[in-house]
Design brief:
One of its GO terms (biological process) is lipopolysaccharide biosynthetic process. The chain is mainly alpha-helical. Helix content is 60%, strand content 0%. It folds into 2 domains: 267 residues, no CATH class; 78 residues, no CATH class.
């Protein structure tokens, strides 16, 4: 009887899993403490002109923007609008950042990675100041990261993807695409991954239907306001700006209608700057710059078709900025901070939109300033830049080996990471901010490269 009633001894695997969880709980507690310090170290959330105020204004007057920003992030801001606090937005985003780290850890433990290895892969998103500054800012980046990692988790939680999981992943990736259009092609990558795995067609169809329906619905809403079935009104403008670093109209030979988009001698140091450069061909045309989106797209596609090697050269050159030992200011007017900034910054009050958003969303909106003694502690927080540059390149290389070798578990996160790294450069320009969404996925891919091929999925 005693033998029957005796409590079963935990298996070796269960004991190892629990021990690994203790490691991550310690890591997570440190990450929580760091975020509390950030909330105490600044008087408010970081607000950027003009992105933050455009997002907030769209949340107040819900409509699709006709320029760069789809409305996905503004929906999130609309949900928090009753609280009338940008500080609350930052607090919720800090919790989302912790959630990203937890999802990475759980996914890797599910694929039999040891607790220390899974915790190490989650460390960049939990402790890198660049990620914490995104969490503390009214910007869409953190939401994109959260949704993409959640979509990856849905697809990879089980070795055999269920129809329900595929549909959930499709919806999450569509929401990521409606937050930032650069994430839309990830839906195609996910579908291709399912096909390569010989997944039953119904599951691939479930992913595509769940993704296409919200995208099509949004495009219809956009058409009601702007007369064009699209997700944004800037894709052509962005691609045109990309071509301004290499376009040669003696080679392209555009038709007369598009010749006005040729380089006109105005030169700047980064492709994205041509969108705003007063003397650029785009900004010398009559009317709003975004009203010329279709003309710009047509010219850009002809330029790429006529000079494909020049286009690829510019993509490689700008993407390589992600791997430099010392960060490169790109464009040069941008000042980079390797850690948490200390000081006080004012808002450009000459823009009437700032006052409008202050009246309608949060009356306490103000410029960011550090709060002592916490600001000094944050400014001394050590996180070396090389963990972004050279080490990021090594992580991508390890993930690539795992993706193309016998252990192909790394294929999907590595493909997601590479596309999120290169896609924005190909569509417009390099930006250190746009590198960040690819880092957590690269860490997942690199960790999975060490996963033993025949090791079973572990119940965590």
């Amino acid at each position: 009887m005693a033998a029957v009633l005796a409590r079963p001894r935990p298996s070796e695997t269960t004991t190892r899993v629990r021990s690994g969880h203790r490691i991550f709980l310690f890591v997570l507690a440190a990450a929580v403490a760091l975020r509390v310090l950030v909330m105490l170290g600044y008087n408010t959330a970081q607000l950027y002109w003009y992105d933050s105020f455009t997002y907030l204004d769209t949340a107040i007057h819900m409509r699709p923007q006709g320029a760069f920003h789809p409305a996905g992030y503004s929906w999130f801001l609309w949900l928090l609008r009753p609280f009338q606090s940008v500080e609350l937005i930052a607090g919720v985003q800090h919790a989302m950042g912790l959630g990203v780290g937890a999802m990475i850890y759980l996914l890797l433990r599910r694929w039999s990675l040891p607790g220390w290895g899974a915790s190490l892969a989650a460390a960049p998103v939990l402790f890198d100041p660049a990620f914490l500054r995104l969490e503390h800012a009214v910007l869409s980046d953190l939401q994109v990261i959260f949704l993409v990692v959640a979509g990856l988790l849905a697809l990879m939680w089980r070795r055999e993807v269920s129809t329900r999981a595929a549909a959930l992943a499709g919806l999450l990736l569509a929401l990521a695409g409606l937050t930032r259009t650069a994430a839309v092609p990830l839906i195609g990558l996910a579908a291709l991954w399912l096909v390569l795995r010989r997944t039953p067609w119904r599951r691939t169809a479930a992913l595509l239907v769940a993704a296409v329906l919200p995208l099509a619905g949004y495009a219809g809403w956009y058409a009601q306001h702007h007369g064009r079935f699209a997700l944004s009104g800037s894709d052509g403008i962005a691609l045109w700006a990309r071509t301004m670093t290499f376009a040669d109209c003696s080679v392209i030979r555009p038709p007369a209608r598009e010749a006005v988009m040729c380089p006109n001698g105005s030169v700047t140091d980064a492709a994205s700057e041509y969108v705003w450069l007063p003397g650029s061909a785009l900004n010398r045309l009559p009317g709003n710059r975004f009203s010329h989106n279709e003309l710009a797209r047509s010219f850009a596609l002809k330029a790429i078709a006529a000079q494909p090697l020049d286009y690829l050269r510019e993509i490689v050159k700008d993407t390589s900025l992600a791997f430099t030992w010392q960060p490169v200011n790109h464009p040069k007017r941008v000042s980079l901070a390797n850690t948490f900034p200390q000081g006080a910054w004012t808002l450009p009050e000459e823009h009437t939109l700032i006052g409008k958003v202050r009246r309608e969303y949060d009356s306490d909106i103000q410029g960011l300033s550090s709060v002592e003694p916490f600001g000094t502690i944050l400014a001394a927080y050590p996180y070396p830049w090389f963990l972004h540059g050279p080490l990021f390149g090594v992580i991508l290389l390890v993930g690539m080996i795992g993706a193309i070798g016998r252990r192909r578990a790394a294929l999907l996160p590595w493909a997601f990471s590479m596309f999120l790294l290169v896609g924005p450069v190909a569509a417009l320009d390099f930006d250190h901010r746009y590198v960040l969404p690819s880092i957590p996925l690269a860490c997942v891919a690199a960790a999975l490269a060490f996963q033993k091929r025949r090791q079973p999925v572990v119940d965590v």
